[in-house]
Amino acid sequence: MTYCFSPPPVIGLPVRGQKALFPVRRVYCIGRNFAAHAIEMGHDPDREPPFFFQKNPDNLDPSGNFPYPGNSNDVHHEVELAVALKSGGSDIIVADALNHVFGYAVALDMTRRDLQGQAKKAGRPWETGKAFEHSAPIGPIQPVTAVGHPATGPIELLIDGQRRQSGNLDQMIWKVPEIISYLSKYFELAAGDIILTGTPAGVGPVQRGDRLTASIAGLGDWNVAVI
């Protein structure tokens, strides 16, 4: 097969303990999946149907650096559990959902909050606030065979050693199997999909020179420098 120009390279993420990279297909993100975060963003924390937005595969950045983006003066950190799929399908039942998981990673959903707020106010999509370059720093994917399926334990973010976000995975309104099942009703999931599962309360701004430490029970720490 020939193309008009060279196609972009496949986005590959490091996998702990393996030389082979994890090839990324799509990136899905669930919004307001921790009650305390829903409250701090001015929303009702009741278990309403989940909603999703997307980032681009090349927004994922495993380098450990986050270049502060332009056109924003209010970029926020959001620590999240990332789920990496090895298979997929449509209408996946909750009981089978975890069978499609390859592994997990510590990730950040960096957000140009000012631009997201403008989009919300105008009833427009969130891409300028969510899907910009380097907006998803992510640590190494850790296979299920090594870490199991994290479902409880601390999820935290520190800036220069000071705790800013603190929650527990069991505080997710929609758990990982439910997220996979619900998402598969609207999209055909497949190997290579990444799902960011929501952030606890305490989101806030970052500045150039900040050192972020994101941690999730069972997955360890992931350090990101804001440059």
TrEMBL record:
One of its GO terms (molecular function) is hydrolase activity. SUPFAM superfamilies: FAH. Residues 27-224 form the Fumarylacetoacetase-like C-terminal domain. Pfam families: FAA_hydrolase (PF01557). InterPro entries: Fumarylacetoacetase-like_C, Fumarylacetoacetase_C_sf. Keywords: Hydrolase, Metal-binding. PANTHER family: ACYLPYRUVASE (PTHR11820), FLUTATHIONE S-TRANSFERASE (PTHR11820:SF90). This is Fumarylacetoacetate hydrolase family protein.
